[in-house]
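User: I'm writing a short report section on ligand binding and want a predicted complex to refer to. Could you take this sequence and coenzyme A and write out the structure as tokens? A short remark afterwards would be nice.
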Amino acid sequence: VSPRGQVAVRPARPEDWLGVQALLRELDELHAELVPAYFRPATRTEPDWRRLLGDSTALALVAVDEGEGSRAPVGFLSLRVYDTPADPTMVPRRRGHLETLIVDARRRRSGIGGRLLAAAADWARARGAAEMVLTTWVGNAEADAFYERLGYRVLSHVLHAKL
Ligand SMILES: CC(C)(COP(=O)(O)OP(=O)(O)OC[C@H]1O[C@@H](n2cnc3c(N)ncnc32)[C@H](O)[C@@H]1OP(=O)(O)O)[C@@H](O)C(=O)NCCC(=O)NCCS
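Assistant: Sure. The structure tokens for the complex follow:
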């Protein structure tokens, strides 16, 4: 076990890919376990990573332990900003959609997830977003407890039934 240092949150760079890929694998496996009818573990590819980093409507952040020689990311977040579609029944608003948040399982409960989310909220706010939205999947008690603690409340319930 390497010594733990200061954790920094910064925009992701192309060379963070291998570390982020490992974190995404952890997240994909969790989702496949929780909702196998929807998710399966897959190999994420570098072209998608490059596209994300080049997308001006998206934010990709990593948390990096500066005391760790490898500087492999210990947390990753991605977010996109969306405007409400032109629909007369909808209140026009810009929102930050949190797409991915994952902290290395060995590094949880030390404030990393909260710091990533706070930095993402600042970024979205600076781009005119009035609110953040995100999806958690049933059974993800860790995520539910985390978001509830940070003030997030349930907005809708998605129902499903077998045909
Ligand atoms: C959800 C997740 C990102 C939280 O990251 P984290 O770095 O552990 O979160 P923090 O340390 O910033 O937690 C902040 C607060 O949230 C609450 N919290 C976080 N995890 C919790 C848990 N497992 N049980 C209860 N409360 C929890 C606590 O109040 C915590 O503060 P405390 O540790 O001082 O009590 C992390 O658990 C994770 O990566 N989970 C797997 C992937 C996932 O589910 N991602 C979200 C779905 S999109």
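A remark for your report: The two ends are 50 Å apart (CA to CA). The chain has four helices and five strands.
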